[in-house]
Amino acid sequence: MKYISTRGQAPVLGFCDTMLAGLASDGGLYVPETWPQFSASEIHALRGRSYAEIAVTVMWPFVEGEIDRATFEGIVAEAYGTFRHEAVCPLVQTGANEFVLELFHGPTLAFKDVAMQLIGRLMDHVLAGRDERATIVGATSGDTGGAAIEAFAGRERTDIFILFPKGRVSPVQQRQMTSSTEANVHALAIEGNFDDCQGLLKDMFNHPAFRQSVKLSGVNSINWARIMAQVVYYFTSALSLGAPDRPVSFTVPTGNFGDIFAGHVARQMGLPIECLVIATNDNDILARTLETGTYEMRGVVKTTSPSMDIQVSSNFERLLFDASGRKAEEVRSAMASLKQSSRFDLAGQTLSTIRAGFDAGTAHLAESAATIREIREKSGYLLDPHTAVGVHVARQKVRGAAPMVVLGTAHPAKFPEAVREACGIEPELPAWLGDLMERHENFTELPSDLKIVEDHISRHARATR
Ligand SMILES: Cc1ncc(COP(=O)(O)O)c(C=O)c1O
Ligand SMILES: N[C@@H](CCOP(=O)(O)O)C(=O)O
């Protein structure tokens, strides 16, 4: 498979170079040249297979020709062997026709583990084959950082620097990022919000001298490999609920639009998905965009679902590209307008295409707290505040007979305060993470200043030596 940039002005790359590049050199995001197709009978044949087997089949067209099949199978089996549930991503029924897809059985209790556990191993494999090193820089609103650190800690060929917004992540999320004892891990607390961290990251990618000198690579969902790994659980869950004979809908708690874009990819590949519902918290830029046709940034509001406190939703660019009929000039003009005036208008046809496949809704603070309480009372199930945003929105959007799957993006114990305030119960960390909050913290505080952050990374990255 070859990969092209959404802005149409970067070199066409194979899978390994796309994964190592992270962001395209023209500032765009890489997407596959075409969507692989799975027929109904090919999807049917996946029924009853293990998560790892389905993962290999679904991802193979994206990596074929670049990684040997047996090696890929070994890497996938090892990655999902780290999950503490035999099904890897199990489904739990929470309502009459409503299910939560638990994506938080990995090492850091967040859906990010699904992709990170794979990418850490894939990158190692590719870098070893080339005898190269890389410097991974990531921006996080809380969960990506912990999952990336867990996946890359102690790896010989990479150093990892994670930029997180100081004071805006939960204490559990912070400790997951700051308590590693490995020398290749660097947690950086940035004065600002997640958008500032992501802005710094994109500026580093758009700075060729720095990018080259540290051999910059990224593991945010701007990296295609992240999306590829997340496509798999749409297949596994839909299969469990009767696909391909019965369509399924998904509601996805959304911030950077990576997780829901993976659902779009699954649908483009042939999985019968009726509707993809975007669920936002009070940072509702995407819900407003679908309603008004204008993507317009406002300030970031602090909520109880901090990982979704985002305004610049990077992967929306990938959807824009696809929904416009893959017109790179339309994407370039939208992104130029966003940079200049913090807004852009969607072209009429692009907006209609998006509205045909997606719906969107918002859960305000009190609504997500009420949802945690209500589900706990009625079914005994404890939601984290991000998943609660999803369940609240899903319940406003139910239509037709298709089962509604809400993506359960984090374990409630990552956000004990918000859960306790909502329903009076303080969720506990699993025993194997029981000492997390006693572990020693190690991080560096930096201002939101590109030069200062780049200098810090250059001084500590081994790839520069
Ligand atoms: C717990 C949780 N839920 C939802 C999201 C939103 O996912 P995405 O950024 O892929 O839209 C995130 C962050 O990415 C998260 O950490
Ligand atoms: N919510 C995310 C923000 C970054 O998202 P990513 O999917 O692009 O890595 C987080 O938890 O950091």
TrEMBL record:
Its EC number is 4.2.3.1. This is Threonine synthase. Transmembrane segments: none annotated. It catalyses: O-phospho-L-homoserine + H2O = L-threonine + phosphate. It comes from Oricola thermophila. Pathway: Amino-acid biosynthesis. Its cofactor is pyridoxal 5'-phosphate. Belongs to the threonine synthase family. Residues 2-80 form the Threonine synthase N-terminal domain. The keyword Oxidoreductase does not apply. GO terms for molecular function: pyridoxal phosphate binding; threonine synthase activity. InterPro entries: Ser/Thr_deHydtase_PyrdxlP-BS (IPR000634), Thr_synth_N (IPR029144), Thr_synth_N_sf (IPR037158), Thr_synthase-like (IPR004450), Threonine_Synthase (IPR051166), TrpB-like_PALP_sf (IPR036052). Keywords: Amino-acid biosynthesis, Lyase, Pyridoxal phosphate. Pfam families: THR4_C, Thr_synth_N. SUPFAM superfamilies: Tryptophan synthase beta subunit-like PLP-dependent enzymes. The modification N6-(pyridoxal phosphate)lysine is found at K112. GO terms for biological process: threonine biosynthetic process. It is an enzyme of class 4 (lyase).
